[in-house]
Write a structure and sequence with these properties.
The chain starts with a helix and ends in a 9-residue tail after the last helix. The protein has about 170 residues and is mostly helical.
């Protein structure tokens, strides 16, 4: 089974699998742990209709918090099929799907607490561009063919100005 413990002593492999080195993983582990416990408390512990008390049932494959963090970082870095993840982490595809949805939210919460989320606000585009006065931007706009509409007014809207297509 893939685990953080197996890869933490292999820096190149850890970076290839997660995009982070060991120091960065351990630095992210504290806010991830706090976010995980907050998520579990909000979504599972305080849930009204429980058939058994929290913590009952089968123990998860990803028991260690390091393995949970490694799992979701590996998923976002490599982005394999869920069947492949199930094979690598020795669990089922359905459980992989549950872990991905749960741990994605936890990771987003952890990065928010650590204030490490990228700032992407389209309303502040002018401010961002004003800070980048010496940087030139290139917008890659490749024209894509579309089905020709039958209505004459729609044809005028979709017309690009090109006469022929290059094959």
């Amino acid at each position: 089974m893939l685990s953080y413990q197996r890869l933490k002593d292999h820096p190149r492999a850890l970076r290839a699998f997660t995009g982070l080195d060991q120091i960065e993983c351990e630095k992210l582990l504290t806010p991830f742990t706090i976010a995980y416990h907050a998520y579990m408390y909000d979504h599972h512990v305080t849930k009204k209709a429980r058939k058994r008390r929290y913590g009952g049932g089968r123990k998860p494959r990803l028991a260690a918090m390091e393995d949970k963090l490694f799992f979701i970082l590996f998923y976002f870095k490599v982005y394999p099929l869920q069947e492949v993840m199930a094979l690598l982490f020795e669990t089922s595809q359905g459980r992989v799907n549950e872990w991905i949805h749960q741990l994605s939210t936890v990771l987003q919460m952890a990065l928010g607490k650590a204030q490490a989320l990228p700032a992407r606000d389209p309303h502040n585009l002018e401010q961002t561009l004003a800070l980048c006065v010496s940087v030139d931007f290139i917008i890659d706009g490749t024209e894509r063919r579309v089905q020709r509409p039958t209505d004459a007014t729609e044809q005028k809207e979709k017309y690009s100005g090109k006469k022929k297509t290059i094959r």
